[in-house]
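Project outcomes to date are best conveyed with an example. Our students and postdoctoral researchers have been running inverse folding experiments weekly, and each run begins with a structure described purely in tokens. The record below, which covers 157 residues, was selected by the lab manager from last quarter's runs and is presented without edits.
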């Protein structure tokens, strides 16, 4: 089964189709993997975000179906660095990576539906004027997350 990230019947209503085009899950013994095909890949800004969101989805679904999250496989088509991102991309590539963090999921979040409810609560608090916290605050955290200073780049449309 393939899941499309956008509805082809509604393309006229969008500025462009989602860059992350489709994904599928597959099971091997007790392990769940996810493969995502990305049709257009802004390597500096879009790809890191899409990798994080689909890796989180893999962990949430694995928990819900009581399997071990295994591999996130990312297929990149039309991978590119925009001209105005060249200096920022060069700076990123020259940095020494830190050790990978660990993902912590709230044990009470046993389904994607609960995660979506928590996410909507966070968005509602932000809309009410409450100072924003981490986007996933309340159900997911990165432990031992180290990062370099921000690199600024404008989103290309």
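After processing, the design step wrote out the following sequence:
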């Amino acid at each position: 089964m393939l899941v499309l990230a956008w509805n082809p019947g509604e393309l006229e209503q969008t500025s462009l189709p989602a860059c992350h085009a489709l994904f599928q899950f597959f099971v091997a013994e007790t392990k769940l993997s996810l493969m995502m095909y990305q049709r257009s890949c802004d390597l500096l800004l879009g790809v890191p975000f899409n990798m994080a969101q689909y890796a989180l989805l893999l962990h949430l679904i694995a928990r819900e179906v009581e399997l071990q999250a295994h591999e996130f496989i990312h297929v990149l088509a039309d991978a590119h660095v925009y001209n105005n991102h060249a200096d920022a991309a060069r700076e990123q590539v020259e940095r020494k990576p830190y050790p990978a963090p660990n993902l912590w999921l709230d044990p009470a979040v046993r389904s994607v539906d609960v995660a979506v409810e928590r996410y909507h609560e966070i968005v509602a608090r932000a809309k009410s004027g409450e100072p924003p916290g981490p986007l996933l605050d309340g159900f997911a955290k990165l432990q031992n997350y180290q990062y370099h200073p921000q690199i600024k780049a404008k989103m290309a449309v």
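The two ends are 31 Å apart (CA to CA). The chain has two domains: 1-8+15-84, 98-148. The training component of this project remains on track.
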